[in-house]
TrEMBL record:
Residues 815-962 form the AP-3 complex subunit beta C-terminal domain. It comes from Papio anubis (Olive baboon). The keyword Transport applies. GO terms for biological process: anterograde synaptic vesicle transport; antigen processing and presentation, exogenous lipid antigen via MHC class Ib; blood coagulation; cell morphogenesis; establishment of protein localization to mitochondrial membrane involved in mitochondrial fission; granulocyte differentiation; hematopoietic progenitor cell differentiation; homeostasis of number of cells. This is AP-3 complex subunit beta.
Amino acid sequence: MRPLSLACRWRPSCCSYLTLPIILFLILMKMMYFKLPIIKIKVWIFFLLFCNRNEDLKQMLESNKDSAKLDAMKRIVGMIAKGKNASELFPAVVKNVASKNIEIKKLVYVYLVRYAEEQQDLALLSISTFQRALKDPNQLIRASALRVLSSIRVPIIVPIMMLAIKEASADLSPYVRKNAAHAIQKLYSLDPEQKEMLIEVIEKLLKDKSTLVAGSVVMAFEEVCPDRIDLIHKNYRKLCNLLVDVEEWGQVVIIHMLTRYARTQFVSPWKEGDELEDNEKNFYESDDDQKEKTDKRKKPYTMDPDHRLLIRNTKPLLQSRNAAVVMAVAQLYWHISPKSEAGIISKSLVRLLRSNREVQYIVLQNIATMSIQRKGMFEPYLKSFYVRSTDPTMIKTLKLEILTNLANEANISTLLREFQTYVKSQDKQFAAATIQTIGRCATNIVEVTDTCLNGLVCLLSNRDEIVVAESVVVIKKLLQMQPVQHGEIIKHMAKLLDSITVPVARASILWLIGENCERVPKIAPDVLRKMAKSFTSEDDLVKLQILNLGAKLYLTNSKQTKLLTQYILNLGKYDQNYDIRDRTRFIRQLIVPNEKSGALSKYAKKIFLAQKPAPLLESPFKDRDHFQLGTLSHTLNIKATGYLELSNWPEVAPDPSVRNVEVIELAKEWTPAGKAKQENSAKKFYSESEEEEDSSDSSSDSESESGSESGEEGDSNEDSSEDSSSEQDSESGRESGLENKRTAKRNSKAKGKSGSEDEEKENEKSKTSDSSNAESSSIEDSSSDSESESESESESESRKVTQEKEKKTKQGRTPLTKDVSLLDLDDFNPVSTPVALPIPALSPSLMADLEGLNLSTSSSVISVSTPVFVPTKTHVLLHRMSGKGLAAHYFFPRQPCIFGDKMVSIQITLNNTTDQKIENIHIGEKKLPIGLKMHVFNPIDSLEPEGSITVSMGIDFCDSTQTASFQLCTKDDCFSVNIQPPVGELLLPVAMSEKDFKKEQGMLTGMNETSAVIIAAPQNFTPSVIFQKVVNIANVGAVPSGQDNIHRFAAKTVHSGSLMLVTVELKEGSTAQLIINTEKTVIGSVLLRELKPVLSQG
């Protein structure tokens, strides 16, 4: 056909989507010219619109331009985010997995993680690329490659996945280690036979000190080997102390795991007031044995310190913004804390009732379970469970359940008035539930039984049929308890049979009349007569009760009801329902005497008119307490797949010493044997008292966590170097604690180090029993941290040098004898590069907590802190076109330089964009201004094609923005490059109190002060916006401020250490004043010029 030929000639590659409507119009006109059916026209339009809809994306992905590929990947990821299917683009996308552009590569991995499991065959073709990406210098690429590799669910690549997980578990980046923990669960589900090897990796990752990894590895532990409690012993105290700083979903997993752990390792804290009442003496048991048992029973309960550590460290998480975390802590307190302490969770759970309806539903379910056993916990918050008109039915029902559990003699009158309002609700299901609640209250509280019964009888005249029916059912249950006293109510209910149509209610009335037929002898036969007329049209449930009523009346009043009962039995004999037919035959043989009647006929009256036990109205949540609160099994009231049951408390607590982490022997060799106290040498890791943990662990933990969470190599370098530089001082401080302060002063003078006396005093005041812990951890980490430093400088060569230094150091440590004192170790240097800033770096939050607390005897207020923000912006050092395929970029990591205390740290990333190896990359001739100094990186032997490497160097800019010019050389060429620092990178952040800030600012006035007025919109003057803009421009630290309109920042220059104080004071209207106080007036004015436009713009 001619339209078909036209469609075949059209190709989407010849035109864009802008011309598509024109082409469709032309095709439509031509089809109408040939008078084709309208259905065919629709088919062709559908074909043209949808069959080629992704052709332009495929062409963009095959383009030679990175910009087109990047645009295509953004559109594809956008399609995935909107829920659209983009699987048909997999072949075109996977080709770009080896792209040199880092942004394209990231988006490709995002796509592959989503579709690798669906397109396994195509993903396998690129598995070699994924393996190469596992060694990429960028941590995001390494992590993404591992995620894609673990998403390919093919058993043949299990060995490759196993090897990749092992390598990633030892990666320097905590983000990569976190993804390794995630991959463990995927590999285990693919091949459970790898369990033993995976347990080894889990054991290794459990020792990780990074808070980023903790939650993920515990999740892997719960999936792979939840019964291996022995892996947790050594890490228990670490997990308890890290818990506050772990990400929220990691906190949930860890808390649930520690709950199970506590139930197996500690004795029950609920035995405090319980006394065994076993007074009987066993036969053959002596008086001494009986006395020993009595002493054991009377022995007071003492909580294990580790048990107390867990309860104390989880308490702050009750203030978490995440409802799951609060719920996890609540279930922990419910299952393992003493009953006297569990009450603190009630306020936090009630706070969660302000959340969305899904959260409310789960929280109310757990409160309903708790309120059955411990009513006193939630009685003060009774009004919080009152039903609102906007609540959905499921929430209303749960609140009714809780109100019923909390009802007692004191508050029942208030609750009944509340229930009267609920009965009038338009929500009929809720109104019916309220009537059931009234019945339960009447059952549980005897004093109000009659009141509730009278109220329910009044509801029988309600216009709503559902309310009346539910009232009848509840009244029937109540009357079973006191049938003699309420004959009038039964008569009243019998009259309702003419108006009530709900089958359950009609059946309940008939059952009541049948049970009490002897008390209402005149009414019962008449009711049976009416029911016989409508028997054929009744519901099956009602028919069964009519048969029962007839049988009971036949046995008690056969004179009036014999013929009527036989008539009903004849109707039931031919009913369509086989249950009714069976019941009819059974009753006939039982009550009507004939030749075939068996022995049971004699006992028919006892069978039908036996006394029935009163129903027990119980809460549906009564039996849910055997499930762990907050779990899916508790919500569904059935054991779900993967549910781990809580074990019973052990009668005798297992050995608590398994949780002690011993100090390594290397640290003991350094301690003089003649001076060490016996109690200090026997003290274990984390085994301090509760008070010491509160004061010392919080600071040491936050310090280690702030370094580990960042994921930056510079952070690990800084921590390791600081720990190593303070090892000797901590040793001397420990020795002085063993003797006296005078000995410490003599040792410090003998060493000849200026300022060491102040450091020793500071160590004595701030360090408690954790000093040995910090020392041992610094020794353990020195090798790993020094490796991270050497890797940031160069790759293979510097690693060898570091390993040789370690070997020499170990050889030097071996011959130490007991008579060697610390004074003989002056020339000993740990294996790490010394840092010129010996003061430990503190996080801003910790510095705010320690505001006003001066730990040293010196009057200096300058203490360098970690950077609060590290910009990711990179600068071009050498373009690939100018460098003949060698590209270089640099950025400022804002960390103290490891090459000198006056140098600015710079990281340079070198990329080989050619298809040939580049050899001997090094720094050539330097053209530096007077005073500038440079520490270069070690020469790089070779850089593979498409390879990349990051190296570190330091430059002393002498507190100026002068350009440092030098040559970047390869084996064949030299290229002139230069680095000019932004003024904000010449600073190091300083932590100080507001009082010290004002004191220093008062000394830097007049010529040392520069200021400017800023005009901007009010939304640009919020605290978060000002903070973000200032720290993005300059490496400064935030100073706590007691005034909302004043924001203060402090730093010091890298070279001279001069203070740089920045103040942003908000004025009325849309203006603010920017003030900078510093001795370096040139740098201050330059910084003012850079900050002013940034703060002014929106």
